[in-house]
Amino acid sequence: MAKKALIVQGGWDGHDPVRVAKLFEGILKQSNFEVEISDTLDSFVDKQKLLDLDLIIPVWTMGEITPEQMWPVVEAVAEGVGIAGCHGGMCDAFRNSVQWQFMTGGNWVAHPGGDGVEHVINIRRGSSPIVEGIEDFTVSTEQYYLHVDPAIEVLATTQFPVVDGPHTANGLVDVPQIWTKRWGEGRVFYNAVGHNADVLDTEPLLEIMRRGFLWAAEGKEIANEKGAKIYKDLRKIL
């Protein structure tokens, strides 16, 4: 049976959400997923529909999410549905939602130098099959400085500073760029690189995203086999 994925696109147009969503759709269809693309956050309201999915991919920078839209996602992922994304489409989404940030594992705070900063993505070898066989690589795009959850499993980092600024007074800092995390029974995957579709439509980023999507989606079947814990109302806990 084919796995099912929902891509929700929108928010700030500067991150090319429509083209990025189509690129992700192509990656998933090559792996035999059934894919739905939506341009409304109301696609998150129906928790039962979300529980029928294997994977949720948000491509939505900034904007606002209502509690009625946010809580079904937080609960569905906790019950085994995977969530995966990149750049601002997942970890600069919904700046007013600390629950979203808690689930995804981090949030963007700065990109010193703006777009076109040449920097190295340093792969943490042996950290995960998602990056197995992939070497360090250089990109010329936004270098994401993120505040991150200490619970994440770091798959790759980038070193600051490259561009001078007040942050340079702290010396060299390795900031996570690719990570995984667990959220209840669900799997979370994030890649900070991906300012637009042209940046993402290159190797090894395409392969990293493909592997990340598959890894996150596998969690649903595993959770079902062992009997996923049901979270009826997480807002009473968080």
What does this structure look like?
This protein is of the alpha/beta class and 238 residues long. It has a domain at 4-107 and 178-236: 3-Layer(aba) Sandwich (Rossmann fold). The protein is built from seven helices and eleven strands. It has helices at residues 17-30, 47-51, 67-78, 87-91, 98-104, 197-200, 205-226; strands at residues 4-11, 34-38, 55-61, 82-86, 106-110, 117-123, 137-141, 145-148, 153-160, 173-183, 186-191. The strands form two sheets. A nine-stranded mixed beta sheet has the order 2-1-3-4-11-10-9-6-7, with helices on both faces. Strands 5-8 form a two-stranded antiparallel sheet. α1 (17-30) links the parallel β1 (4-11) and β2 (34-38). The model has no long low-confidence stretch (mean pLDDT 96).
Question: Any descriptors?
Answer:
238 residues, alpha/beta, Rossmann fold, two-stranded antiparallel sheet, globular
